[in-house]
Every structure is written in structure tokens, then in C-alpha cells.
Amino acid sequence: MIANRGGGAFIRSDDLEDRLRAAFEAARVEADIHLVEADGIAEAFADAVQAPRLDAVVAAGGDGTVSCAAGHLAGTQRPLGLLPLGTLNHLARDAGITADLDAAAAVIAVGHARPIDVAEVNGRVFVNNSGVGLYPDMVRFRGAEQEQGRSKRLAMLSASLRALRSFRRRRLWISAPGVETPIRTPLLFVGNNRYRASLFALGHRETLDAGELSLHAVRARSRAHLFWAGLRGLIGRLDQQRDFVTIYADRATISSDRPHLTISADGETFTMETPLEYRIRPKALRLIVPAPAPQ
User: pTM of the predicted model, to two decimals?
Assistant: First the structure.
């Protein structure tokens, strides 16, 4: 079990290792627990994939930690367990895994694994979503706000307002099977499977194994247009046809007149060469989830 010490307040608590060990002991699981600083997470998961005689690798942390774990475990037969200790925990939420530590450890103890999809952009795995435009800006601004001591949720609200003030549209070209279209958009969202329509907040996914990407390019032409779309999103009135260009496909190429674009993937930002090559990897990751109720 690998915990990211750079995570939220729970992760940074002084008694974290004792609480983790107690949760696994209560679930009657023998756990080799590693508390790792953020810059050592990737190496820790790479080592865990190669370690012999393990039934599973468990990631304790937020979406970034889970994404890193999935990048190493996808394509292997070793299952991934989750202790969702971050702020948002999108994959755990959509997989039905509770944020309660003892209950999540009990799910891992049962060991019911199901194959789910992962997505890639230029070879980098993500489990939730990726974005071009406003969302990477919001993630970057959020980091700056958190460095000033604000909570992640308050920092994201402030970052969203800052990103709205810096509104601009990107010229992109989307190529997917059966689709070739230019688009000018302030925000392109690429999801691992289908998300319910939303704008500044992510909706739920109905499935994690449909084998498709969901691409949503916001149609907003101005800051005011985007603002009103955001308000409609808060009350559940977003319209797929009016507010988005929507494409479902197993792969897509995003081209730009820029040689590099800043993108987000599972809450982290990266600068990547264009074009951006997105693809789905169907059922590439074995995820430990709650066992189905007996019929």
C-alpha cells in the first residue's frame, strides 16, 4: 500500500500509518505500508508492479496518486485497490468505493476485481479526464491558491473565477473516426467514458468500461456566454446541442497551430507536443470494487 504524503490533511496527519495499519488489521489483510513523498510516488508504484507475491497494489491518496498507479498497473494482471483520501476522488466515487477508511479496506479485503478502461494522451495514462484551455488554467491557478494556505475547494472556486477573467478561445482541429472539424473553444474536455453534461464541475459516469472517449468542446463565444452557461450548469440546465460540440469515439487527434499545449490530466498539468493523440484502452486495468449483492 502506497500513500502519497503530499496529499490532503488526512494524508499529512501524524498518525496516518497507525490508522492505515489498524484499518487493514481489522479487515484481516496483511499490508506492506509505504508512506512516500510526492516526488517518489512514480518510482514506488513502478517497484510495486515488479514485486513478487502480492495480491494487489493499493493507492492511498487523491486522483493524481490513483492516476499514477493506474499508469503502472494498466496492462498487467495485478489489481489496483483504492483508499480514496483526496479531496474529490472521482474514480472511487464512480466505482462505488466509499471514502470511509475502514469500509474501503474491507472492500480491498474481499478482493473483487473488475476490468475498467483507462485513457491515454500521447502515451500518458489517465483514469478520469483531460482538458485543454480553461481547465488546465484552473488547475494551475488552484495550485497557486493552495500555496497561500487555502483549502482545495476554496482554491478551486477562486481559480475558476481567475480563469474566467482570462477567457480566450483556442483554435483546434478535432479528428476522430467519421469526424473532421475545426473548433474555436475556451475549453475542450476529454473523458474516460461518458460524463453527465456539466461545465465547471464534473458529473458522474454511468459506466467505466464502455470503451469510448467523450469529447466536449464548449461553444461559448465570450466571457459572458461562458458565465451564463456555467449558471445553467449549476441548476442542471446545460444543453448538449446548444452548449457543446460532443463527440464519442475510441480515439481522437487534437491539432493546433501551436507546437505545444498545456493540458490537464486527472488534476495535474503538463505541457505536451501537438498533435495530442487520445485513445481508450478498453478494460486495461483491474480495479478492486465492492462485490455485487447476491441475487
Answer: 0.86
